[in-house]
Structure formats: C-alpha cells, structure tokens
Write a structure and sequence with these properties.
The protein folds into 3 domains: 20-86 and 123-215, P-loop containing nucleotide triphosphate hydrolases (Rossmann fold, 3-Layer(aba) Sandwich), CATH 3.40.50.300; 221-301, Helicase, Ruva Protein, domain 3, CATH 1.10.8; 305-375, Arc Repressor Mutant, subunit A. 49% of the residues lie in helices and 18% in strands. It has helices at 20-31, 51-64, 78-86, 122-134, 155-173, 194-201, 206-209, 221-234, 241-251, 255-271, 279-303, 307-316, 326-333, 337-349, 368-375; strands spanning 40-44, 68-73, 93-104, 108-117, 142-148, 184-191, 212-215, 238-239, 276-277, 324-325, 353-357, 360-363. The strands form 4 sheets. Strands 2-5-6-1-7 form a 5-stranded parallel β-sheet, with helices on both faces. The protein has a 3-stranded antiparallel β-sheet with strand order 10-12-11. It is globular and about 65 Å long.
Length: 376
Amino acid sequence: MVNPFKPTAGKMPPVLIGRQDIVDDFAEGLDNGAGAPGRLMLVSGQRGLGKTVMLTELARTAIARGWEAYAETASAGMTDRLIAALDSAGPRVRHATIAPAIGIPGIANVQLGSVDVAASNTALDLRRAIESRLKKLPKGKGILFTVDEAQAAKIDELVAIATALQHVTVDQDLTDERDEEKRGVAFAFAALPSIVDELASNEVLTFLRRATYRELGNVAVPDVRNAFVETITAQGKSISRENAETAARATIGNPYLVQLVGYYMWQAAQARHSDAIEAQDVEYGIADALSQFPEAVCAPSYRSLSPAQQHFLRAMAPDYPSATTLSDIAERTGKSMSWVGKYRMSLERVMMIRAADWGMVEYAQPYFGEWIRSRM
C-alpha cells in the first residue's frame, strides 16, 4: 500500500483540507470571463500552511479548463524565464558588425565579429510574449501565471509582471469579442504576510493590490480528523475516529503537520504489517512528526526575522506555554514599552505572535515555544 500522505514542501496532499472555497473562487473567476475578480489572487500565510500546494491546485484547476499555466518561484531572472517559456525565439539581434580586423604579419588577417543585442524592456517583452501566446489559444481560454515566495522577488520584477498583465488585460478588453470569448490572463501569487504591506505602499503595484486576498490559517481539527479517516480508508487501511481525533489534535490544524503525522503513523502501521492504524501507531507518528517539524518550519520562520524580532520572541520563552505580559518583555529585553509595541505589531503582522489577553501575547505558530526554549 502506497503511503497517501506527502510531507514534502509543495507536494499535493490527497485531500485539500479546508481550502476548497479558495479553489472554487478561482474557478469561478476563470469561468465568468474577462474581468472576473477571482483571476487575480494573493495567497498569504506563514510557512507550513500550504501556500505552494494551493498554487499547484490553482494551476491544476486552470489546466483542467483548457488554460495554460506557467509556474515560477521568485528569484533573480524570473520575468526573463517567463518570457523564455512563452517565446522560445530567444534574444533579438539589433544589428551585427564585423570589426575590428587584426593583422598577423606573414600569416593572415583575422576579422573579429561582434553582435549587438537589443536592450530588453522587460515589461514590454513580457507583454508581447503573452499576447503572442494568447493568439494561439482557443477563444475563452487563457494563461495562468503563478509565482511562489513572492516576498523574495525583486520589486522591479513584480512591477514588470503587473505592468504587462495590466496592458494585456486592457488590450483584450478593446477587442469586439464577448467577455466569455476573450482570451484572458490570470495571476496567483503566494507570499509571507510581510509582503502585503509592501504591496500596499508601492504605487506602481496598484493593479496587484486589487487581487483577491486569501490568508491561509490552520484547518479546523474536526476537518483534519475526517480527512484522516477518509484518506486512510480510501487507501486500504482503517483508523478509528478516536485515534483519528488524537492525531488531528496533535497537528493543531497545521497542514504540514497533518502530512507529517499522517505519513509517520501510516509507516508505523506498515512496519507492523497491519491494515489498521492503532493507538500505538498514532503515538509513534506524532512523536516522529514533532521531531521533524521544528527544523522544517520553525527554524526558517525564525531566521527570516530581524535580530530585534528574534530578541522579542526569546523574551517570551520563559513563560511558555503560558502567555507573556508586554511589561515582562520590556524588562527582559531592557527596552522601552514603545520598542515593545513596535515589534509586537511587526510580529503580529507576520503571524508569529498573537494577542492572548489584555497586555499579553503568545506564540502563534504551533510548537514554536518548545523550539525556542530548546535553543536557549
């Protein structure tokens, strides 16, 4: 029996737990023709909450409707790679020259050639490549672009993509075809919550600021429990609702932990050559999952923060699993209350902490407190 749980980052899980409404909104955007709001979507959330999986599912949805999909992860040269994928013609040569000539006495004259490649206007090149590709598609179809880890993109590349998509949309609107027959473009990008404010502050990215914003959070534990039962049963094993409930609660609804716990409790049953996942398998699965989760999710999240934000989080550790008062954070860090207020807001914005009570905060990511304390 093949293990149905896939705890690899970005790997499609067997059940897209608690996310179907996002997929439905996007599908409606494709079906409703040019200008539908679901065609432009920003998916936000902390690491481990399934952003990459969501982009993959949106691409599958588009392809199933006869669209083309081009997926990129934000890094240097992203727009150039999109242009190359759309148009394999390569760089355009403006003109060629033969110069200079080098004379070698008694042997020969050698001509050195030089080629002058046209300077690139990325937004214009991308616009032309998109429109050229659209002409080859059937009426009513289009192209979906997905960009993962958008917080790592250079702002000029996001501007180039936004500018190209905006012009292509306008050009399509100017045609005499009915909306449902127009060839369209769709854009879905995923990012950590920190990029939302950056987009809002960039005047050139107003087009992207109109995107449908969907913030991923933890999945309800009953949904996880039901998904465990359905997935395991469909693949040929069994699990009681009680054991599935225990496993679901350990995940705290975190999609990545769902995959980890599911994977390891399945493997534990396999090691016993059993078709039933019992309580001991769940216990082993949870233990193995929690041994891997911190380095896979907590460590990258922590390293992405500024030294001041890390200092704030360490000051909360002595109280874990209880909440911490803001005054205690000020005392432990040796900082003012205004400093504490500033970094509290920044950490809440990126979903690392949350308010617990009046004047108190707690860690927002599962098992983050244990990981911080282990480091200290």
